[in-house]
Amino acid sequence: MPPIRIVLCRPSHPGNIGAAARAMKAMGLTDLRLVAPERFPAKEAQWMATNAVDVLESATVYPTLNEAVKDCVAAFALSARPREWSPQVLDVRSAAGRAVEINDKVAFVFGSESAGLTNEEMFACQYLVHIPANPEFSSLNLAQAVQVVAYELRMCVDVAMPFARVEKRATVEDLEGLYAHLEDAATRSGFMEPKSRLRERWRRLFSRVPAFEREEVNILRGLLKALMSRRNGRHEPKE
Ligand code: SAH
Q1: Cα angle, residue 44 at apex, residues 43 and 46 outer, rounded to 5°
Q2: Taking the domains of the chain in order of start, what are their residue ranges?
Q3: In angstroms, what is the span from residue 112 Cα to ligand 1's centroid?
Q4: Positive or negative, the Cα torsion across 105, 95, 119, 81?
Q5: Contact 8, 35 (CB under 8 A)
Protein backbone atom coordinates (compact mmCIF):
# COMPACT_ATOMS: atom_id res chain seq x y z
CA MET A 1 0.00 0.00 0.00
CA PRO A 2 1.25 3.55 -0.65
CA PRO A 3 1.92 5.64 2.49
CA ILE A 4 -1.67 6.73 3.09
CA ARG A 5 -2.60 8.42 6.35
CA ILE A 6 -5.96 8.49 8.10
CA VAL A 7 -6.65 11.59 10.18
CA LEU A 8 -9.59 11.80 12.59
CA CYS A 9 -10.48 15.35 13.64
CA ARG A 10 -11.85 15.75 17.15
CA PRO A 11 -13.37 12.25 17.47
CA SER A 12 -15.67 12.15 20.49
CA HIS A 13 -16.16 8.39 20.96
CA PRO A 14 -12.92 6.48 21.69
CA GLY A 15 -14.66 3.31 20.46
CA ASN A 16 -14.71 4.82 16.97
CA ILE A 17 -10.96 5.42 17.10
CA GLY A 18 -10.42 1.74 17.90
CA ALA A 19 -12.85 0.61 15.20
CA ALA A 20 -11.12 2.91 12.69
CA ALA A 21 -7.75 1.36 13.60
CA ARG A 22 -9.19 -2.10 13.00
CA ALA A 23 -10.74 -1.04 9.68
CA MET A 24 -7.36 0.34 8.61
CA LYS A 25 -5.29 -2.67 9.60
CA ALA A 26 -7.64 -5.09 7.85
CA MET A 27 -7.04 -3.18 4.60
CA GLY A 28 -3.29 -2.74 5.12
CA LEU A 29 -3.10 0.86 6.40
CA THR A 30 -1.17 1.76 9.54
CA ASP A 31 -0.68 5.54 9.76
CA LEU A 32 -3.38 6.89 12.09
CA ARG A 33 -3.33 10.48 13.39
CA LEU A 34 -5.75 12.11 15.77
CA VAL A 35 -6.47 15.81 15.99
CA ALA A 36 -7.58 16.86 19.46
CA PRO A 37 -9.49 13.68 20.39
CA GLU A 38 -11.95 14.12 23.24
CA ARG A 39 -10.56 11.09 25.10
CA PHE A 40 -7.44 9.14 24.13
CA PRO A 41 -5.93 6.71 25.08
CA ALA A 42 -9.05 4.95 26.27
CA LYS A 43 -10.21 1.42 27.13
CA GLU A 44 -13.07 1.56 24.61
CA ALA A 45 -10.61 2.26 21.81
CA GLN A 46 -8.62 -0.83 22.76
CA TRP A 47 -11.72 -3.00 22.95
CA MET A 48 -12.87 -1.96 19.50
CA ALA A 49 -9.42 -2.26 17.93
CA THR A 50 -9.06 -5.95 18.94
CA ASN A 51 -5.94 -7.18 17.11
CA ALA A 52 -5.23 -3.76 15.64
CA VAL A 53 -3.97 -2.33 18.95
CA ASP A 54 -0.57 -1.87 17.28
CA VAL A 55 -2.10 0.69 14.90
CA LEU A 56 -3.81 2.34 17.86
CA GLU A 57 -0.65 2.42 19.96
CA SER A 58 1.39 4.02 17.19
CA ALA A 59 -1.32 6.66 16.55
CA THR A 60 -0.05 10.19 17.17
CA VAL A 61 -2.02 13.16 18.52
CA TYR A 62 -1.89 16.73 17.12
CA PRO A 63 -3.51 19.96 18.25
CA THR A 64 -4.53 21.02 14.72
CA LEU A 65 -5.22 19.44 11.34
CA ASN A 66 -2.50 21.51 9.66
CA GLU A 67 0.10 19.94 11.88
CA ALA A 68 -1.19 16.42 11.25
CA VAL A 69 -0.91 16.78 7.46
CA LYS A 70 1.93 19.27 7.00
CA ASP A 71 4.26 16.75 5.30
CA CYS A 72 1.56 15.42 2.94
CA VAL A 73 1.47 16.27 -0.76
CA ALA A 74 -2.34 16.08 -0.85
CA ALA A 75 -5.22 15.84 1.60
CA PHE A 76 -8.73 14.50 0.95
CA ALA A 77 -11.52 15.78 3.23
CA LEU A 78 -14.45 13.43 3.84
CA SER A 79 -17.88 14.97 4.21
CA ALA A 80 -21.33 13.49 4.43
CA ARG A 81 -22.89 16.83 3.46
CA PRO A 82 -22.52 18.63 0.15
CA ARG A 83 -21.12 22.15 0.68
CA GLU A 84 -21.88 25.25 -1.32
CA TRP A 85 -18.20 26.19 -1.52
CA SER A 86 -15.59 23.49 -1.41
CA PRO A 87 -12.40 22.17 -2.95
CA GLN A 88 -12.77 19.85 -5.95
CA VAL A 89 -15.45 17.21 -5.25
CA LEU A 90 -14.71 13.52 -5.86
CA ASP A 91 -16.61 10.34 -5.06
CA VAL A 92 -14.71 7.94 -2.82
CA ARG A 93 -13.71 5.58 -5.63
CA SER A 94 -12.18 8.32 -7.77
CA ALA A 95 -10.47 9.78 -4.71
CA ALA A 96 -8.88 6.42 -3.89
CA GLY A 97 -7.67 6.15 -7.48
CA ARG A 98 -6.19 9.64 -7.34
CA ALA A 99 -4.47 8.93 -4.02
CA VAL A 100 -2.90 5.67 -5.25
CA GLU A 101 -1.80 7.40 -8.47
CA ILE A 102 -0.06 10.15 -6.49
CA ASN A 103 1.97 7.38 -4.81
CA ASP A 104 3.35 9.70 -2.15
CA LYS A 105 2.25 10.83 1.33
CA VAL A 106 -1.46 11.67 1.21
CA ALA A 107 -4.07 11.96 3.96
CA PHE A 108 -7.77 11.17 4.22
CA VAL A 109 -9.32 13.48 6.77
CA PHE A 110 -12.50 12.71 8.72
CA GLY A 111 -14.68 14.98 10.84
CA SER A 112 -16.12 14.51 14.30
CA GLU A 113 -19.21 12.39 14.89
CA SER A 114 -21.33 15.33 15.95
CA ALA A 115 -20.36 18.18 13.63
CA GLY A 116 -18.16 16.80 10.84
CA LEU A 117 -15.31 18.94 9.52
CA THR A 118 -15.20 22.71 9.94
CA ASN A 119 -14.93 24.85 6.80
CA GLU A 120 -11.40 25.73 7.74
CA GLU A 121 -10.44 22.06 7.98
CA MET A 122 -12.12 21.30 4.67
CA PHE A 123 -10.23 24.10 2.92
CA ALA A 124 -6.95 22.85 4.37
CA CYS A 125 -7.52 19.90 2.01
CA GLN A 126 -7.35 19.87 -1.81
CA TYR A 127 -10.31 17.55 -2.40
CA LEU A 128 -13.74 17.01 -0.89
CA VAL A 129 -14.77 13.36 -0.95
CA HIS A 130 -18.23 11.91 -0.57
CA ILE A 131 -19.36 8.36 -0.07
CA PRO A 132 -22.55 7.94 -2.11
CA ALA A 133 -25.42 7.22 0.29
CA ASN A 134 -29.13 7.66 0.92
CA PRO A 135 -29.72 11.42 0.44
CA GLU A 136 -32.13 11.38 3.41
CA PHE A 137 -29.60 9.66 5.68
CA SER A 138 -26.16 10.17 4.23
CA SER A 139 -24.07 10.21 7.38
CA LEU A 140 -22.15 6.99 8.08
CA ASN A 141 -20.65 6.11 11.41
CA LEU A 142 -17.10 7.54 11.53
CA ALA A 143 -15.29 4.17 11.65
CA GLN A 144 -17.50 2.79 8.91
CA ALA A 145 -16.62 5.76 6.70
CA VAL A 146 -12.95 4.97 7.38
CA GLN A 147 -13.65 1.35 6.39
CA VAL A 148 -15.17 2.36 3.06
CA VAL A 149 -12.19 4.60 2.22
CA ALA A 150 -9.66 1.93 3.27
CA TYR A 151 -11.50 -0.69 1.22
CA GLU A 152 -11.55 1.50 -1.89
CA LEU A 153 -7.82 2.12 -1.48
CA ARG A 154 -7.24 -1.60 -1.15
CA MET A 155 -9.27 -2.31 -4.27
CA CYS A 156 -7.27 0.25 -6.21
CA VAL A 157 -3.97 -1.23 -5.16
CA ASP A 158 -5.03 -4.84 -5.74
CA VAL A 159 -6.70 -4.13 -9.06
CA ALA A 160 -3.90 -1.80 -10.18
CA MET A 161 -1.26 -4.42 -9.33
CA PRO A 162 -1.23 -6.03 -12.80
CA PHE A 163 0.05 -2.65 -14.02
CA ALA A 164 3.25 -3.40 -12.16
CA ARG A 165 4.10 -6.07 -14.74
CA VAL A 166 5.06 -3.30 -17.10
CA GLU A 167 7.43 -5.26 -19.28
CA LYS A 168 4.65 -7.63 -20.34
CA ARG A 169 2.09 -5.00 -21.26
CA ALA A 170 0.94 -4.57 -24.83
CA THR A 171 2.19 -1.36 -26.44
CA VAL A 172 0.20 0.91 -28.73
CA GLU A 173 2.07 -0.73 -31.59
CA ASP A 174 0.92 -4.20 -30.47
CA LEU A 175 -2.67 -3.02 -30.27
CA GLU A 176 -2.52 -1.30 -33.65
CA GLY A 177 -1.23 -4.60 -35.06
CA LEU A 178 -4.23 -6.37 -33.58
CA TYR A 179 -6.68 -3.77 -34.95
CA ALA A 180 -5.16 -4.01 -38.44
CA HIS A 181 -5.34 -7.80 -38.25
CA LEU A 182 -8.99 -7.68 -37.16
CA GLU A 183 -9.82 -5.28 -39.96
CA ASP A 184 -8.13 -7.46 -42.53
CA ALA A 185 -9.91 -10.60 -41.32
CA ALA A 186 -13.26 -8.85 -41.02
CA THR A 187 -12.99 -7.43 -44.55
CA ARG A 188 -11.67 -10.53 -46.26
CA SER A 189 -14.27 -12.76 -44.63
CA GLY A 190 -17.03 -10.40 -45.75
CA PHE A 191 -18.07 -9.85 -42.11
CA MET A 192 -17.45 -6.10 -42.20
CA GLU A 193 -19.47 -3.87 -44.48
CA PRO A 194 -17.45 -1.09 -46.16
CA LYS A 195 -18.90 1.75 -44.07
CA SER A 196 -19.18 -0.21 -40.87
CA ARG A 197 -18.32 1.30 -37.49
CA LEU A 198 -16.79 -1.96 -36.34
CA ARG A 199 -13.33 -0.39 -36.20
CA GLU A 200 -14.47 2.10 -33.56
CA ARG A 201 -16.36 -0.59 -31.72
CA TRP A 202 -13.49 -2.99 -31.22
CA ARG A 203 -11.20 -0.13 -30.27
CA ARG A 204 -13.76 0.82 -27.63
CA LEU A 205 -14.08 -2.79 -26.53
CA PHE A 206 -10.34 -3.30 -26.10
CA SER A 207 -9.84 0.08 -24.45
CA ARG A 208 -11.87 -1.33 -21.55
CA VAL A 209 -9.22 -4.00 -20.89
CA PRO A 210 -7.24 -2.43 -18.04
CA ALA A 211 -3.89 -4.13 -18.56
CA PHE A 212 -3.71 -5.84 -21.91
CA GLU A 213 -0.65 -8.08 -22.11
CA ARG A 214 1.42 -8.65 -25.25
CA GLU A 215 0.90 -12.39 -24.99
CA GLU A 216 -2.88 -11.91 -24.98
CA VAL A 217 -2.68 -9.81 -28.14
CA ASN A 218 -0.59 -12.57 -29.70
CA ILE A 219 -3.18 -15.23 -28.78
CA LEU A 220 -5.92 -13.26 -30.53
CA ARG A 221 -3.76 -12.61 -33.57
CA GLY A 222 -2.77 -16.28 -33.71
CA LEU A 223 -6.42 -17.28 -33.63
CA LEU A 224 -7.29 -14.85 -36.44
CA LYS A 225 -4.42 -16.17 -38.49
CA ALA A 226 -5.50 -19.79 -38.00
CA LEU A 227 -9.12 -19.02 -38.86
CA MET A 228 -8.17 -17.11 -41.98
CA SER A 229 -5.77 -19.74 -43.25
CA ARG A 230 -8.37 -22.47 -42.71
CA ARG A 231 -10.88 -20.38 -44.60
CA ASN A 232 -8.42 -20.01 -47.47
CA GLY A 233 -7.88 -23.74 -47.48
CA ARG A 234 -4.32 -23.39 -46.34
CA HIS A 235 -2.93 -24.87 -43.18
CA GLU A 236 0.02 -22.79 -42.18
CA PRO A 237 2.34 -24.33 -39.66
CA LYS A 238 2.16 -22.87 -36.18
CA GLU A 239 4.71 -20.15 -35.45
N1 SAH B 1 -22.87 14.80 11.68
C2 SAH B 1 -21.75 15.02 10.81
C3 SAH B 1 -21.30 13.76 10.19
C4 SAH B 1 -20.53 12.93 11.12
S5 SAH B 1 -20.05 11.41 10.50
C6 SAH B 1 -22.12 15.99 9.72
O7 SAH B 1 -23.25 16.35 9.61
O8 SAH B 1 -21.22 16.38 8.98
C9 SAH B 1 -18.32 11.49 10.86
C10 SAH B 1 -17.43 11.67 9.66
O11 SAH B 1 -17.49 10.52 8.82
C12 SAH B 1 -17.76 12.84 8.75
O13 SAH B 1 -17.25 14.05 9.21
C14 SAH B 1 -17.08 12.40 7.47
O15 SAH B 1 -15.68 12.68 7.55
C16 SAH B 1 -17.30 10.89 7.48
N17 SAH B 1 -18.53 10.52 6.72
C18 SAH B 1 -19.67 9.99 7.18
N19 SAH B 1 -20.54 9.77 6.17
C20 SAH B 1 -19.93 10.15 5.05
C21 SAH B 1 -20.31 10.18 3.67
N22 SAH B 1 -21.49 9.75 3.23
N23 SAH B 1 -19.40 10.66 2.78
C24 SAH B 1 -18.19 11.10 3.18
N25 SAH B 1 -17.79 11.10 4.46
C26 SAH B 1 -18.64 10.63 5.39
Answers
A1: 65
A2: 4-159, 172-231
A3: 8
A4: negative
A5: yes
- Helix (H), strand (E) at residue 109: strand 106-110
Using CA atoms, how far apart are residues 219 and 212, in angstroms rounded to an integer? 12
Task: Tell me which architecture the domain covering 4-159 has in CATH.
Answer: 3-Layer(aba) Sandwich (3.40)
The Cα 164–Cα 93 span in angstroms is 20
Predicted confidence (pLDDT) per residue in 41-78, tens digit: 999 999 999 999 999 999 999 999 999 999 999 999 99
Which region among 42-51, 131-140, 187-196, 219-228 has the lowest average model confidence (pLDDT)? 187-196
Residues with CB under 6 A from ligand 1: 78-81, 110-111, 113-117, 129-131, 133, 138-140, 142, 145
Give 87-112 pLDDT, tens digit per residue. 999 999 999 999 998 888 999 999 99
pLDDT of residue 231: 79
- The CATH code of domain 172-231 reads 1.10.8.590
Is the predicted pLDDT of residue 236 greater than 70, yes or no?
no
